[in-house]
Amino acid sequence: MTAPELVDLENLVFLRRDVLDQGYDDRHIVRMVRCGAWHRIRRGAYADGEAWRSLSETDRYRLRCRAVLRTAHSSSSLSHVSAAIEWGVPVWGVPLDEVHLSRVDGKGGRREAGVVHHRAPTPAEHLCDLRDVRVTSPTRCAVEMTSMTGVESALVSVNGLLHLGLTTPADVAELAHDLRFWPSSIGANLVVRLADPRLESPGETRTAYFMWANHLPKPIPQFQIHDEHGRPLARVDFALPEHGVFIEFDGAAKYQEHRRPGETLEDYVLREKRREERICQLTGWVCLRITWSDLNRPRELALRIRRVLESRIRADQ
User: Fold this and answer.
1) pTM (2 decimals)?
2) Which residues contact 271 (CB under 8 A, 6 or more apart)?
3) Please, is 295 exposed, middle or buried when counting C-beta atoms within 10 Å of its C-beta (0-12, 13-18, 19+)?
């Protein structure tokens, strides 16, 4: 079980008490923050200003999590979306304005100052030391996500955990059953049913969920296309072989991750167009491309897909 490499944030957070222990006072802190040398992460917690400005929004959130842990009860661990972010999996549709902690000190759950304290039994096997922080395990994190957000949002993170091999569908299903009496866990069974480790990105997960939610045929993810000699030619995001259709999700990340060294965006688009044409020639299928904006207009997208499927049926008659 190995989490993906993330930016190292160890020792970047320091507290007001650390500064005072070095002989400085509050006026010095104010001056350092005003001039930009330090950045105030939250009340009483700071980081080097230049380091803060260099971080992405996700890594700034991770730093806020560390700032919260520095003053939290020693039994606290990052959980829910905070653990998902630290495990390096995608999060969609969940605001990053609060840090989520699980605690086992006997105090009730509460929400205060941008921190959500969850009280739940947390055995040692549900906790991991990851980098410089304690987090809930990938399996526990997957079940936690099903309890804090909707099915579609939860699936994005759960599929991320599964695709990276950090947990398994069987392990998530077993723990979801064990924790079935958790508050807000009603959607866990559906997430377990729809989860698929083959889905590689939030866009693919949302596309698969869209097809299910709109009662469209279930596509096969990561479908391999072979050439005339039976050799692997290409892999498409989704295929509906019985309908003669394949689906590609077009997100901005694809145009960055799949470009070859030195390849311009225009070169990549032309290469992708030639790839699509080759697949269509070999299979006789048609391609449906789906974007983020398409998913934001589900009625229009469902109508477009149904029209394409119906046209394929008529063509075969």
Assistant:
1) 0.91
2) 263
3) middle
Domains belonging to the chain, first-starting first, are 57-197 (no CATH), 203-316 (3.40.960.10)
Q: Tell me how far apart the alpha carbons of residues 127 and 134 are, in angstroms, rounded to a whole number.
A: 7
Q: Look at residues 124, 285, 164, 276 and name the one whose alpha carbon lies nearest to residue 219.
A: 285
Burial class (CB in 10 A: 0-12, 13-18, 19+), 209: buried
In whole angstroms, give the CA distance from residue 3 to residue 9.
15
Token digits of residue 317: 């008659």
Residue written as tokens 């000699």?
A: 229
Q: What are the CA-CA distances from residue 44 to residues 98, 103, 311 (Å)?
A: 17, 21, 63
Map tokens 């299979």 to a residue. 283
Side by side, which strands form the sheet with 115-119? 110-112, 115-119, 99-103, 77-78, 133-136, 127-130
**Rounded Cα–Cα distance for residues 178 and 199 (Å):** 26
DSSP string, the chain: --PPP----TT--EEHHHHHHTT--HHHHHHHHHTTSEEEEETTEEEEHHHHHTS-HHHHHHHHHHHHHHHS-TT-EE-HHHHHHHTT----S---SSEEEEE-SSPPPEEETTEEEEE----GGGEEEETTEEEE-HHHHHHHHHHHS-HHHHHHHHHHHHHTTSS-HHHHHHHHHHTTTSTT-TTHHHHHHH--TT--SHHHHHHHHHHHHTTPPPPEEEEEEE-TTS-EEEEEEEEEGGGTEEEEEE-HHHHHHTPPTT--HHHHHHHHHHHHHHHHHHH--EEEEEEHHHHTSHHHHHHHHHHHHHHHHHHH-
Task: Encode pLDDT of 264-298 as tens digits.
Answer: 767 777 888 898 899 999 999 999 999 999 999 99
**Closest to 295 in 3D by CA, of 223, 209, 237:** 209
Residue 155 has pLDDT above 70, yes or no: yes
